[in-house]
């Protein structure tokens, strides 16, 4: 490399030019699941083993099939599992809540009700190529009140793909495809929770040190029940920049796009640790899942330290759907 090029690179760095977060280091199987790493540091884990519950908590809340921890580029943990207010919350995950199967109500979300649950089943494929790591898994949605042969109500193929993005950020593609083999199909009833992509944020974040902004200009006070193409969730952290966050993107081919959201209001569980958002495709309209038909939802997350502007969010969304 010439002296002139070195000088130009140094100037670019000093001016804050967009620089890739780093080369993907790998996808590693562990005793609990799979770790995705960048620059030799783990940034995201998908859990294949059931997570033990805290002492004194009913074991029904132990589960597998979720993302945690998800970390910012500087290593700040942005997800949370098994919070004492909702032991069934698991980092990044997306079970459906009210489903009608053969005339019965089944709840895959509130696992404490013992009506349904979602678990990791097996790995379909894994690869590291082109600077990206990809894991494809099968998850089973169980109808626990059904006869044994019909308890696997929904089969879900989940694809998680991680690769560097610009400006010391990285991206996560989260693609979920569901189908049922039940002859009668399944009605996913309209409800304020369920499906899509849910995110329970770090216990550090609360009303006074975190913010939410959507593509439509809604903030935490006004976002619940509204539709959006993207949503930025960011808050105080121990990163050098003092702040970290995630931009969540909904693909324009998704059902009910721009997609309805569930966003906890500011006074929900007052104090810290009360940040929850979800892209919820059945928020306003039920969804009939016909037998042996496949239904896909695509999401992308841009994980960052520091700040991310609405203009950048819009550019990321356009790049995602292009």
Automatic annotation (TrEMBL):
Residues 1-19 form the signal peptide. InterPro entries: DUF6807 (IPR029475). Keywords: Signal. This is PmoA family protein. The lineage of its organism: Bacteria, Pseudomonadati, Bacteroidota, Cytophagia, Cytophagales.
């Amino acid at each position: 490399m010439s002296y002139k090029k070195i000088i130009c690179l140094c100037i670019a760095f000093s001016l804050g030019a967009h620089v890739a977060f780093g080369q993907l280091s790998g996808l590693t199987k562990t005793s609990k699941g799979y770790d995705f790493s960048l620059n030799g540091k783990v940034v995201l884990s998908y859990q294949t083993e059931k997570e033990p519950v805290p002492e004194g908590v009913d074991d029904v809340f132990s589960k597998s099939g979720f993302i945690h921890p998800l970390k910012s580029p500087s290593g700040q943990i942005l997800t949370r599992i098994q919070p004492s207010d909702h032991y069934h919350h698991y980092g990044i995950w997306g079970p459906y809540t009210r489903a009608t199967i053969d005339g019965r109500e089944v709840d895959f979300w509130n696992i404490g009700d013992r009506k349904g649950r979602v678990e990791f089943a097996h790995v379909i494929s894994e690869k590291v190529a082109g600077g990206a790591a990809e894991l494809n898994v099968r998850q089973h949605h169980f109808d626990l009140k059904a006869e044994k042969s019909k308890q696997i109500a929904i089969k879900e193929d989940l694809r998680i793909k991680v690769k560097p993005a610009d400006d010391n950020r990285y991206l996560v593609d989260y693609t979920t495809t569901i189908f049922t083999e039940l002859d009668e199909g399944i009605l996913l009833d309209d409800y304020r929770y369920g499906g899509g992509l849910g995110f329970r944020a770090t216990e550090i974040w609360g009303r006074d040190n975190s913010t939410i902004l959507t593509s439509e200009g809604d903030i935490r006070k006004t976002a619940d029940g509204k539709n959006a193409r993207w949503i930025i969730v960011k808050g105080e952290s121990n990163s050098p920049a003092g702040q970290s966050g995630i931009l969540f993107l909904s693909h324009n081919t998704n059902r009910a796009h721009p997609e309805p959201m569930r966003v906890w209001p500011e006074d929900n569980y007052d104090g810290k640790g009360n940040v929850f958002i979800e892209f919820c495709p059945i928020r306003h309209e039920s969804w009939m899942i016909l037998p042996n038909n496949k239904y896909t939802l695509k999401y992308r997350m841009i994980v960052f330290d520091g700040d991310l502007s609405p203009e950048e969010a819009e550019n990321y969304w356009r790049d995602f759907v292009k």
